[in-house]
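Appendix B, Record 12. Input sequence as logged:
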Amino acid sequence: QVQLAESGGGSVQPGGSLRLSCAASGITRSIVTTMGWYRQAPGKQRELVAEDTSGGSIMLADSVKGRFTISRDLAENTVYLQMNSLKPEDTAVYYCHAVLYERRTNWSRDYWGTGTQVFVSS
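Logged structural output:
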């Protein structure tokens, strides 16, 4: 059973920092290709924050460029999101996302964590 375990959320004042972690487990027949983070604020659609692809490239949302950094530990199937200079508009539930590729079937599948809450408020 593939699971994505998120941690690191919490409450912080504007300008503060948080580091989110997500570890994928239960991977037996697949390889993890893309890992990344989405977020969803109340009343808003889920949006991509950052992704680290299997090709070694990263994607960052324009709203977080210069403030957030995504990194990945391939050996541990873990992805991190370092969030600096946090703003109130960063308040959201952050969801870990991973794409797993199964070589036997040549299929890819999306997996999601249950989310970790980030509050940015004074």
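The chain has a mean pLDDT of 94.
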